[in-house]
Write the structure tokens for this entry.
Amino acid sequence: MTTQLTIIVAVARRSAIGRRGDLLFHISDDLKRFKALTMGCPIIMGRKTFESFPKGPLPGRRNIVITRNRDYSRDGIETAASLDEAISMCAGVEKAFIIGGGEVYRQAIGRADTIELTEIDAEVADADTFFPEIADTEWHRVTQSETMTDPRSGATYRFVTLKR
């Protein structure tokens, strides 16, 4: 069985995804969707993404952290030296999720089968982390939600599923 590789990401205008090691927006429905989609599946991330989690490893999921530091270890995670190694650690699993950050997304976009995208209609002038370009010729929208507004931040967004 080949593992289906799914990228999950929230992207604002101009492909912005992060600022100073954090998400740009904390949209409750987006976080709930992230949890529902990834629960029970391996999640693959870079070290900085992992270290941005305030409570450590995300429960109910196998947390695989990519790091060049062979001595890096934390309770509740597995480490991989590369994206290739992280993906190989998921052999025999139906689906694994790539959850960030920017460099891991850049490495994974050419290998992913699906992108679960939250499109946020907002400009973030001081964003410092960006998602790679999504080529219209490679990716096709298969589902798209209605546009919604987050009551807390006022940001408008929609959920989109892209497939190759």
In short: Helices lie at 28-38, 47-51, 83-88, 102-108.
